[in-house]
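User: I'm preparing a small set of examples for a lab meeting where we compare how different chains pack in three dimensions. I only have the primary sequence for this one, and I'd like the structure in token form so I can line it up with the others. Please keep the answer compact; I'll paste it straight into my notes.
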Amino acid sequence: MKFLIAIEPGSEHSAFGVVVPDLPGCFSAGDTLEEAFDNAREAIEAHCEVLAEDGEDLPRAAPLGEHQADPELAGWIWAMVDVPVERFFGPAEKINITVPARILARIDDYARRHGESRSGFLVRAAQAAME
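Assistant: Understood. Below is the structure token output for the 131-residue chain.
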């Protein structure tokens, strides 16, 4: 699953800070940009494992523009990281559904523009509809 991260630029005197805005309380850091990405993946994995153990679902992801409007994250670098957290929320099941080709193309385009897979988008859309 792909997660949006915000990276606070580091300097020779401070580490790169990382926040995962769609997972409140999930943050990390690294002395190098590469280390910041690796540590962000570890933090996301640990955070999601705790959510699953507590019987909670992943929070709904907000659009990038909403996060970019947050003044606390002004000037930060935005990136996506892929972290395989699906295993924490139960085994995945393959399903077969019928969708008009025109709608499927729109789903794929939307998911791609938002850094998601088709399956990830459909799961989030279904969760949002059921809230």
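A couple of notes for your slides: The mean pLDDT is 92. Helices lie at 33-53, 64-68, 101-113, 118-130.

User: Perfect, thanks.
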